[in-house]
Amino acid sequence: MKKNRTTRGNGMVTLPWDLLPDILAWLPVKSIARFRCVNKAWCKLLRNTEFLKRQYKHAVEMKRFSIMFHNQNDIYTFSYDPLLSTCEGSGHVEYPVKSVKMGIEFFGCCNGLVFLRHVNKFNSAVLILWNPSSNECKKLPDPPTKLKEHRGGFVEYGFGYDCQIEDFKVVRIAQGFKKGWCEVQVFSLRSNSWRRLEDIQVDKLSYDFNRPDMCRLPVNGALHWKALVGGDLGTDNILRFDFEKEEFDQISIPDEVNDDHERHLCVLGGSLWLLVNEYGCSLEFWELKDSEGKRSWNRCFSIDIDKFDSDKDLIPLQLLENGKILFGVHSGSDLQFVLYDQKRETTRTLKVHEGLVTSSFPTSVYVESLISLETGTYLGKVQWGKVEEDVSEEKEGEEEEDKVEVEDEEDDGGTGAGVAGTSDDNDEEESK
C-alpha cells in the first residue's frame, strides 16, 4: 500500500503527498519543469492538467509575467521581477530560415501559448502555436481556402480560449472576392481542423498596418480589431469576436476622440484600452467598461509624452501596483523598458537592449505556463540565459539533438513550410 507522504533519503517524513500540488503550484515554471525529473510520481503529478491550470492561475494572481519582442527572424524573451522591478533577458529563438519580407508575425497569446505566423521570401506562410516556456511548438494545418496569404487583400488572425469547452481556437479573417465581405474560418486545437463560419461585412481590419502586438490579446474571451465599415469614407469601429459563441459584433469609438489623432487598441490589466496620441504631446488612456452587456468608454488618465526620452512607439505593457506602468520604448536602435510613476510623473529606465529594435510595437507580455501541445516538436535553435551572452559551442552541440527546427520549403507547389523532428525526452528539454 502506497504511503500518502514524501520522504527524504534518510527516511524522515517531510510533507504529506496531498499538500505537494498546493505548494508546488506557486513555484516558477522552470522550477516545476526541473522537479519533473525527481521521479515518475512527481513527473505524473506535475503534468496533470488540473495542476497546470492551478499553476497558471497562481502566476496570474502573483502578477508574474514575461515580455516578448520579435523582429523578422528572431524572438527574444525577458523576465520581469515584480519585487525588484528589474527586467532581464532570458531567451532567444532564431528562426532557421531567414526572411527578407514579412518574417515572424505575432498574432496573440493566451494561457501561456503564443500564435505565430512566418512568411518566407516566396510568400509561403506557416502557422505555429508555441509555448515559449518549454519551446514546444505545433504547426497548424493550412486553412482550406482559395484566399491565400498576401495575395493583395488583408488576412487577419486571432488566438483565444473557449472556456466552455476548454479548447484553444484560432480565427482567420480574409478579405473575400466580393468587396466589403470577409471570409471567416475557425481552427480548433482539440479537433486539429478548420471550420468555415458565415462571411462578415467589413471593409478593412487594422487598416493602418502599424499596430502594437499588445492589441492582439483576448479580453474576457473575445478579440478586438480596429475596423473600417462603410467603404473608404466609412466610420471607425471596433470589431469584436467571441470565441465561445463564435459570433461578431461591433463597438463604437468614443465620440470625444478626434479623428485626426493617432489611435491604437491595447490590452492592459484584463481590459481593452484605446490609446489616443494627441499630436505627440500626450497619450490618453480610454478604458472600455463592459457590465452585463452594457459597454461604455471611460477616459482614465493622460500622460505627458515629454516625460520620456523618445516619442516614438510608446507602448504600455503592464499596469503595475501603486499606479506605475511598464512601457516599451523605441529609442534609436534600442529597445528600452521604462517604468512610469503616475503619482510622481517620473520615469525610470529598467533596461536598455541595444540594436534589437526599429520599433517597440512588436513587444508584448505573457504569463508562463507548462501547457503541452503534445507534439514533442521544438521551435528553432533556442539559447537559454542572458540575451547578451554567447552560448558555448559545446552546449549548442548537446542541445542540438533535443531541438528541432521549423523549416520553410521553397514554393514548389507544396504547403510552403513545415515543422520537422521530435524529441524523446521532453522533461530534459523543459528543464533547460
From TrEMBL:
SUPFAM superfamilies: F-box domain, Galactose oxidase, central domain. Pfam families: F-box, FBA_3. Residues 9-55 form the F-box domain. Residues 387-432 are annotated as: Disordered. Residues 390-413 have a biased composition (Acidic residues). NCBIfam families: F_box_assoc_1 (TIGR01640). This is F-box domain-containing protein. It comes from Papaver somniferum.
